Amino acid sequence: MPYVDFSPSPRAADLTARVKDFIETEISPAEEDYHRDLAEARRTGDPWQPLPLIEELKTKARERGLWNLFLPHEHAGEYAARFGTDGGEGLTNVDYAPIAELTGRSAIAPLVLNCNAPDTGNMEVLLRYGTDAQKQEWLEPLLDGTIRSAFTMTEPGVASSDATTMEATAVVDGDEVVVNGRKWWSTGVGHPDCKIYVFMGLTDLPENQQSADRHHRHSMVLVPRDTPGVKIERMLDTMGMYDEPLGHGEVSFTDVRVPASNIISGPGEAFAIAQGRLGPGRVHHCMRLIGVAELALELACRRGLERTAFGKPLANLGGNRERIAEARIAIDQTRLLVLNAAWKLDQGGPLNALSEVSQIKVAAPAMAQQVVDFAIQLHGGAGLASDFPLAAAWTAARSLRIADGPDEVHRGVVARLELGKYK
Amino acid sequence: MPYVDFSPSPRAADLTARVKDFIETEISPAEEDYHRDLAEARRTGDPWQPLPLIEELKTKARERGLWNLFLPHEHAGEYAARFGTDGGEGLTNVDYAPIAELTGRSAIAPLVLNCNAPDTGNMEVLLRYGTDAQKQEWLEPLLDGTIRSAFTMTEPGVASSDATTMEATAVVDGDEVVVNGRKWWSTGVGHPDCKIYVFMGLTDLPENQQSADRHHRHSMVLVPRDTPGVKIERMLDTMGMYDEPLGHGEVSFTDVRVPASNIISGPGEAFAIAQGRLGPGRVHHCMRLIGVAELALELACRRGLERTAFGKPLANLGGNRERIAEARIAIDQTRLLVLNAAWKLDQGGPLNALSEVSQIKVAAPAMAQQVVDFAIQLHGGAGLASDFPLAAAWTAARSLRIADGPDEVHRGVVARLELGKYK
Amino acid sequence: MPYVDFSPSPRAADLTARVKDFIETEISPAEEDYHRDLAEARRTGDPWQPLPLIEELKTKARERGLWNLFLPHEHAGEYAARFGTDGGEGLTNVDYAPIAELTGRSAIAPLVLNCNAPDTGNMEVLLRYGTDAQKQEWLEPLLDGTIRSAFTMTEPGVASSDATTMEATAVVDGDEVVVNGRKWWSTGVGHPDCKIYVFMGLTDLPENQQSADRHHRHSMVLVPRDTPGVKIERMLDTMGMYDEPLGHGEVSFTDVRVPASNIISGPGEAFAIAQGRLGPGRVHHCMRLIGVAELALELACRRGLERTAFGKPLANLGGNRERIAEARIAIDQTRLLVLNAAWKLDQGGPLNALSEVSQIKVAAPAMAQQVVDFAIQLHGGAGLASDFPLAAAWTAARSLRIADGPDEVHRGVVARLELGKYK
Amino acid sequence: MPYVDFSPSPRAADLTARVKDFIETEISPAEEDYHRDLAEARRTGDPWQPLPLIEELKTKARERGLWNLFLPHEHAGEYAARFGTDGGEGLTNVDYAPIAELTGRSAIAPLVLNCNAPDTGNMEVLLRYGTDAQKQEWLEPLLDGTIRSAFTMTEPGVASSDATTMEATAVVDGDEVVVNGRKWWSTGVGHPDCKIYVFMGLTDLPENQQSADRHHRHSMVLVPRDTPGVKIERMLDTMGMYDEPLGHGEVSFTDVRVPASNIISGPGEAFAIAQGRLGPGRVHHCMRLIGVAELALELACRRGLERTAFGKPLANLGGNRERIAEARIAIDQTRLLVLNAAWKLDQGGPLNALSEVSQIKVAAPAMAQQVVDFAIQLHGGAGLASDFPLAAAWTAARSLRIADGPDEVHRGVVARLELGKYK
């Protein structure tokens, strides 16, 4: 393994400190109220209508220059100056990673700082591959935080771990593209501001004579939500949670027609785009999970010191101290692994970090799931209820062992590259 | 370890076969509709109003003589003939265990067969320790399935893993007992038929001169729900799920007065009662978890054979077959361990099976959690949503690593008895 | 899972009690001296010359009727009366299992009771498949304990997990069979009494026109050690241990000629024989591992109570009590699983217990390895040295994750049968 | 976690490259012969007489300037110029770590490069705390590679995980110090060049009026091996291996008298010295374990590609690829964790890295044990024998879960510091 340097630039260190302060002074104090109001909306109102608090916090974040910090160093270009932070450039992955970790401690921070998935990934796709017209119409309002977006890829009818099994279609018909199919786990479609879907489907159909190999038959298409034929069939729960107001939807596309110019980077380019899109996004997810795990361990330590049973603080009973130590070790080594992937991405882009990105995608969710599970156990019944953020944190970690490629697929990538050294 | 015999009596084998048939032909076919209707009620109605299907199935179950099968061999007495099955006696733990396993495959079967916790445990307490008046007033309608009950023990303010830290009080005042305190995770209080709470509180207060050691200061009191001062503060979710229409509640008791004759088995007897209550109940829980795990493994195998990725059935990819094998091994050895605990209970009662009951309380939930987690993974995103019973199954297994004594306490019991051999 | 009954027959219970007494009063008291003398022989003499103690103990065991207890109920026939115990029949697998467990607590007990692998498996093969002449020449002295035997199957040049890759040959040439090849991990060949090898090789060569499928091309041949062309190339160590005086050898066979009548059950029958041979043998191995684990847990508990650090007995530090509990749970559930496999074998023979036998072959070594590893840890440095039987126990458990089929192959069998339910 | 930089200095990068080349071209090619000759010596000669190869390689290493690379940046002083490499300074921990990793791939490289434990730790102690006379007499020949040393701390009669339980004594009597007690696991005492023992014992005896707390009562004393009263009672095996010609001894000290000037840093300073000594030493151990694990994974991959079973390379069977991926992930994240500890040591010394050093002491041996265990499994029987370095590697990793503080003690340190954040 070549040597690594995880030092942030001075500007990144300053931004990290300011994000930390903003979360501690503005977001965290409001969070308990936010969740209480959201729970109330679930019982008696419409939890899919965003609570006004988020917009208020977004305004504050933007005023403080803590906005679109995810903007990638390599592709941000002029947009960093126009929509980014203090007119500066986009951050490197190593620079942004500690910021992502901090936002992982809060359920709403990513939204507040306009750094929420899948908007970040969609914006990055538009930055890298979008035409000027596409950028003007969709990227700018996304960077502005006035609209949201979804990424519709996973399908209910096939094993999406192998994306080539995809059944949805995006067939070019003259100067239009006709979109058909059913997608699910489309995150964010529940939000009223979610105006644009990045849709992935098969363009080079199997029944035609195929010139392209199976990784060059799919296209990514920008489908505005209001296009006729687009229908949100239902919202899906994850372990009973709906993650309102963003949520995860099952969406049907029936003879949906959009201009052929809505295809991103041309027909057949979907896999190439997806590949580039997922590296930084996975670093973000994984760093947020580090933040999740840190929060869980902090809560476990505090509970372990405060509560008493059998005449001792819980922390001193049985194997609890050993488990606290194992959690600390697991968090620290996983953080370093994620920083390492970020550094490899910065050094040479996604192709330089194939193994590293897959490594963290396996390691971070499993670590976070384990640490949160321990924290739940130390909280007893309280850990399972919404009184603490632990149940939601567990679900987030568990979901990420499936979303963005299941563990098994990523282990396959790592093994292939490892065995390749000896062939 | 002495030798064991897990063979059921002919009558038990016949009942098991009939329960299997009833679940397959009556309960399972109705289950999908039931869950769809319940989901609909959550969105638009009142999920706490029981759907009529349950009462219909209860009637059928009773007509077929599949009713109150949990009735314990040792304590069922005349009630087995009056409210039990085909006029026969109560079953032994070994006899009942395979029936409990079968009911674990269905979310509603325990309710339908009038074998649902905590009613079963409460009925057993009344059978063993109740006065004739208590039995007539509360046991008979419970056996009749016309009312339900709750067990209010766990408290939000203390570490309930050490029950002696309990803060609620049940103070005798003349011929009344005055009940105060706050309880949570009181399962079943959401149901409109839940009429009676078994309440546990401190009678021999610390500020008084205490004659009793710390395991003889608490009493169990029958508190009708409608008594003034009883208030359900809120219903709690477990990983986002409310388990309607039974649910888990937080309940406050404020100067609640009931006759002193509502104390079960006399003041200070709560721990003695709790001890006897928990052995069979834990066998039931654990056998149901065996059923949960069997169902999960079946779903995983079916999904693994049906879905294809990378040109192969999922089951043939990577380590999936090894994980299927590990699941089979884990299920089978845990079932045998639970049967062993049942057999020890049958041979000599709870004191004969202290280690065995704690062993299964550690082993079965952890096993089920692991097997269900694997089944979720093989289902991809579908496994996390309510489309499959896996998310609820995971939550049930996870909860039982905390409910009825957390893993750590049970490991402590096993270790104490193990080390005791060498002291 | 059908119901099971692990109760031993009264005769088996009596024999178990007598074996326990014999081990406690005769074998265990001699064992420390035995190991000291063996260590001395390693330094200054020839550890491959058996120490006289073993023969003395064998005589005592035979006098007490504790001899050849492994003799299988189904195949023992007249030999049980002539060479077995108190003129009685062979024991069932369920009957013998607790005896095997007891012998697992001692490194020399299996030898002393003439129940040592691979002699037991070889004797069983001769009982089931041998001609009268083969029985008279080899089975009777083995039952008499005057000679020993080896089973030469595994080869250094191929992956023996797939036995069809075997390269050694046993070619019929008129009334002779010509044996060629190199075998290793041939257990027992170091002992001077080891007079007969059961050799497995390819008879129906690939270069010939093959009529047989790949599981009917191999033969088992009785090859006396002194036949010209047989050479023990070297003795192999397992984690540094040679297991003198039996040991594990690498043996070359060069144009070794024996009468064709030395083929067991005819040419091409090797796989059929191997299949039948391995069921009970695996139960024996696994039950001995239960004994190994019980001994390790006992040593861990005793050490944990006797030694003090940081002002407390080691047992009370950190997670040690939880680990003791986990060990107890793991041992008990594995024992029950092994008894279950034994019961299935008794009910319907090897084909009735394919999954069960593979299950225990995975579960028991892994469990024993884990429990012994914990016991080593609690002993500190002492646990790693030969001062305690733990290092040897660990090695025995670890080896059995490879010997008699590696874990992965057995998991494959379990998974195949599990998935077969849904095809 | 503050940001980290694991980049080596240009000189360190150059030295690392040269060590890699030296191991590949000089040490590795000789290693098979070395082990064969050593095995032969075990059978027929005296394995405690070092084979001449080591001295030949030492000469070559020194000629190439690859000598005493462990010399610590902070304390090497003039000795780096006199005995170190190319007249340069000592390396930082971050600089030396990759070199230590490389040496971990070879059983003899640390010895050849004069970087072997416990000599390195003893030299560091003398550098930091030794008087000029002590340095001249013992440090210089150690740096010269003409003598070796041992560290005698662990005792057979007490739980050495708690060093305050130590029973050996070092009592000042006028201008002499009288040493008594029994030590074991004294690594290196088997070597004929091992001339000096660093002995730790109690100076401020409990029966005296104690002025010092329990961490200021012990002294470290330089005891030449030839002093009357010093006796090597026996050499200890680790899982059957003696690690000749260095080995691990049990040593008795009976009224051993040395000048009081042999006390290092004055009476009562042993714990202070030990604390400073163990930080870098643990980094060295852990980085060598990274090298061990890398070698094991490489062997596993090669074997997995070369051997075939069931018609496929072993690597493609069952869960093997997933396990290869898990091994890669585990190695990489552990390496980063060790580099992080090295970096913290470099930034602020042992007190700055208490948690980090304990973290790696838990994580690295467990990781290496796991990876090697997997590699053994993939090698089948060969993996258990001395034909491959895997059995020895496993033993080395397993030993280090006990040596230099057992896992449980290090987890305790990590947990104490973690909980300390919230007190």
From TrEMBL, chains A, B, C, D:
Residues 150-256 form the Acyl-CoA oxidase/dehydrogenase middle domain. The keyword Flavoprotein applies. Pfam families: Acyl-CoA_dh_1 (PF00441), Acyl-CoA_dh_M (PF02770), Acyl-CoA_dh_N (PF02771). Its cofactor is FAD. Keywords: FAD, Flavoprotein, Oxidoreductase. Belongs to the acyl-CoA dehydrogenase family. Homodimer. This is Acyl-CoA dehydrogenase. It comes from Nocardioides szechwanensis. The lineage of its organism: Bacteria, Bacillati, Actinomycetota, Actinomycetes, Propionibacteriales.
